[in-house]
Design goal:
Number of helices: 14
Strand order of the largest sheet: 10-6-5-11-12-14-13
Largest sheet: 7 strands, mixed
CATH architecture of the largest domain: 3-Layer(aba) Sandwich
GO molecular function: S-adenosylmethionine-dependent methyltransferase activity
Protein name: Protein-glutamate O-methyltransferase CheR
Order of helices and strands: EHEHEHEHHHHHEHEHEHEEHEEHEEEH
Keywords: Methyltransferase, Transferase
Distance between the termini: 62 Å
Strand content: 15-25%
Shape: globular
Number of strands: 14
InterPro entries: Bact_Chemotaxis_MeTrfase, CheR_C, CheR_MeTrfase, CheR_N, SAM-dependent_MTases_sf
CATH topology of the largest domain: Rossmann fold
Bound molecules: S-adenosylmethionine
Organism: Acetivibrio mesophilus
Structural class: alpha/beta
Length: 383
């Protein structure tokens, strides 16, 4: 039996329909081809995994993103390349160098992308964007920027790959563990006096950051009164985060980070572990709301006591950093905490107009309130 899956499978009804088809196949060998999906739900992953254990399921995918996701979880699959994405003239031993292009060409291109696809990268740092464009061009063996630009603007698949190249999703459980120790020992204890705590993890990638936070909150005994909003511009990492399935290949580093962060339990207690992957337990998912959202969008999501925006601002130019910091100022409670990444800060972007240092080393800042602006700050001590 062969099932071809068209579209993104982004509704429960579509996912259920696929599961039904699989069920109907009975004990026959089944071949599934995912034509457009970049990600699939946890039920589907687990079902395929089960069938592969019984040697009765072959999987073919056309999207590189889904291919890497499946491989990371131990699902055997074949990547089928769309003919339209191959450059026929390329010889594999040819050394490719992109032609140089001007920053103005890139600015026009980013505006066109915004007009056509609705994603706004116009105020991202140009050096990083240019690097990513070159990586994407070489992926298609293209050296001419104008040709690539046309391709992106006329082919959704090519744009999608560029979008994935722009959204760099590197993350870890307890990334920079000493920051989590500091949150646990200082910041979160201060928030304990609230009856309800709202935290926003901005640019949460595949969920490892908000899940790490949920583990600490659980160990402090306050997870039940916390709502974590976890958002990212990239819809596929959000689905990955909701799935909560992770490769076990990095488990030693994860355990190490957890211990360095002062974890009080056994890291693996938070997962159901199979031989290929680990599945986050539902008790950690209940207080996290994952959804796609770009931090550049106007409009306040809620009033938070703490915002984590780590390793994202480095991709923004100074003008955008200022706007986003202003946005965080408006989204935080008086004295609310903002946590940034190790190599980020408040110096060049006038952040100190709105925030004061709480702990410089760990990049923890506090929102100024009106009395901060007009008088001496009562919170100017380092944490
Ligand atoms: C390098 S990862 C950082 C992940 C995590 N915060 C950490 O520090 O481990 C940056 C994330 O920001 C996301 N991102 C990029 N632009 C964004 C935007 N405008 N709004 C929200 N998320 C964005 C990317 O998709 C990516 O997942």
């Amino acid at each position: 039996m062969h099932i071809s899956v068209m579209g993104e499978l982004d509704s429960k009804a579509e996912a259920d329909r696929l599961l039904e088809c699989i069920h109907e196949s009975g004990r026959y060998e089944i071949h599934i081809t995912f034509l457009d999906a970049n990600i699939v739900t946890r039920d589907i992953v687990e079902r395929i995994m089960k069938m592969q254990e019984d040697n009765r399921c072959k999987v073919f995918v056309l999207k590189a993103y889904l291919y890497s996701y499946f491989l990371s979880l131990g699902i055997k699959c074949f990547l089928v390349k769309k003919k339209s994405l191959l450059n026929k003239t390329y010889q594999s031993n040819e050394k490719l160098n992109c032609q140089d292009f001007e920053p103005e060409q890139v600015e026009d291109f980013l505006r066109d992308i915004y007009d056509k696809y609705g994603y706004d990268f116009t105020e991202y740092r140009k050096d990083s964007i240019i690097r990513r464009i070159k990586i994407s061009m070489l992926r298609y063996c293209m050296t001419c920027f104008e040709e690539f630009r046309e391709r992106v603007l006329n082919d959704q698949d090519v744009f999608e790959q560029l979008f994935l190249d722009f959204s760099i999703n590197t993350t870890n459980f307890f990334r920079d563990p000493e920051v989590f120790t500091f949150l646990k020992e200082s910041v979160l204890l201060r928030l304990d006096s609230y009856s309800h705590i709202k935290i926003w993890s901005v640019g949460c990638s595949n969920g490892k950051e908000p899940y790490s936070l949920a583990m600490i909150l659980k160990e402090l005994g306050i997870l039940h009164k916390v709502q974590i909003y976890a958002t990212d511009i990239n819809p596929y990492v959000i689905e990955e985060a909701k799935n909560g399935l992770y490769s076990i290949s990095t488990i030693d580093d994860d355990i190490d980070n957890y211990k360095k962060a002062g974890g009080a339990k056994d890291f693996t207690d938070y997962f159901d572990i199979t031989c290929n992957y680990m599945k986050i337990k539902d008790e950690l998912k209940e207080n996290i709301l994952f959804f796609q959202h770009s931090v550049i969008e106007k409009g306040i999501l809620n009033e938070f006591q703490m915002i984590l925006c780590r390793n994202l601002m480095i991709y923004f130019d100074i003008v955008l950093q200022k706007k986003v910091l202003r946005h965080f100022y408006n989204s935080l409670d008086d004295g609310g905490f903002l946590i940034m990444g190790k190599s980020e800060g408040m110096l060049l972007n006038n952040g100190y107009e709105h925030f004061v240092d709480y702990n410089e080393k760990h990049k923890v800042f506090r929102r100024k309130n009106l009395s901060f602006i007009n008088h001496e700050s009562p919170y100017n001590g380092k944490g």
